[in-house]
Amino acid sequence: MHSSPLFFLFALLATLLLFVFSILAHELGHAAVVALLLGRRAVFEIRAGSLTFLRWKKMAVGILPIWGYVRFDEDKASMADWRLIFAAGPAASVLTAYFFLGLHYLPFAENWRQVFFIMAMANFALAGFNLVPIPPLDGWKIAESYLPLIGVNLTKEGRARLYKWGMVFITVASFMFIFLSGFYKG
């Protein structure tokens, strides 16, 4: 067991970067399908994480793995395009999970193998959680693409309100989960 503050700082930064990499892979999945269906210029911004430390062309990467998104020309996308676009992020997370799982089985030091296994499970969880139909998660956006078929057409203002309250719900539910289950029970 390492007790060095420098080792702890390295481990913390490495973990944050791996989580940000996971979110970036998820968002790049969305962006790739947007570019494929609507053209590269339809992608306005790709963001993964908060507190930006890297900005390159349309991409911004932050150190805190809290949130990510792709801004694109939504008016150009049909509802069928939405289904593909918003399924692509969770699909990319599953591929990223298998990438980390593959690293887990390579002959790395045991602590790195554990990190890769945890990252694989975190990416499977990211994919599954994002498919829950709560605004603004991908699952909701896929479900939302079917609403016009039953005569429900959301305005941009209505969608923004749903997304705002969905974020409030996700934040409160996350804190309640952490409060009730604790941070770590080793």
Give the key terms:
M50 family metallopeptidase; 186 residues; two-stranded antiparallel sheet; transmembrane; Peptidase_M50; membrane; globular; 5 helices; alpha+beta; single chain; transmembrane helix
Describe this protein's structure:
This protein has helices at 5-38, 79-104, 110-130, 138-144, 156-181, and strands at residues 43-56, 59-72. The protein is an alpha+beta fold and 186 residues long. It has a domain at 5-134. Strands 1-2 form a two-stranded antiparallel ribbon. It starts with a helix and ends in a 5-residue tail after the last helix.
Summarize the structure.
The chain is of the alpha+beta class and 186 residues long.
Could you tell me how far the N terminus lies from the C terminus, measured between alpha carbons in angstroms?
15 Å
- Please give the order of strands in the largest beta sheet: 1-2
- Rg from C-alpha positions? 18 Å
Strand content: 15-25%
Major sheet size, sense and barrel closure: 2 strands, antiparallel
Low-confidence stretches: none
Tally of alpha and pi helices: 5
What integer is the average pLDDT?
A: 92
Series of H and E elements: HEEHHHH
**Fraction of residues in helix:** 55-70%
* Shape label: globular
The tally of strands reads: 2
Category by helix and strand content: alpha+beta
